[in-house]
Design a protein that fits this description.
Layout lengths: L1 H20 L1 E3 L7 E3 L4 H5 L24 H15 L5 E2 L6 E2 L12
Antiparallel strand pairs: 1-2, 3-4
Length: about 110
Amino acid sequence: MDAEKQQKEAEKQQRVANRRTQVMRSAGIDTEEAKFEADAESLMKPKKALESYEHLFANKTEFFSTYNPDMIEEALCEHLRQKENVEPVVNDKKYKTKFTLKTQDQGDQE
């Protein structure tokens, strides 16, 4: 468990490091690329609106984390694209991602 915890912490640090050096494009008239430099606190601030948690469904598809929600969303989308060959639909204003995974029926296996 300690090794897994250390691995997760190393992944988190890598994502923070990647965000520090990420190249961002300006939305203004000046279209030159600029390096994104900021402190760790501003990197951990969510970019989208966070809603208060309400337990509405009895589903077990919820989880809680101390990670930055942008990092979770980014990792989820990366996994879906690379490992599942699925293109997720990501909401621009809140943390909501829609996708469909297809599974093989037992009758389809040979």
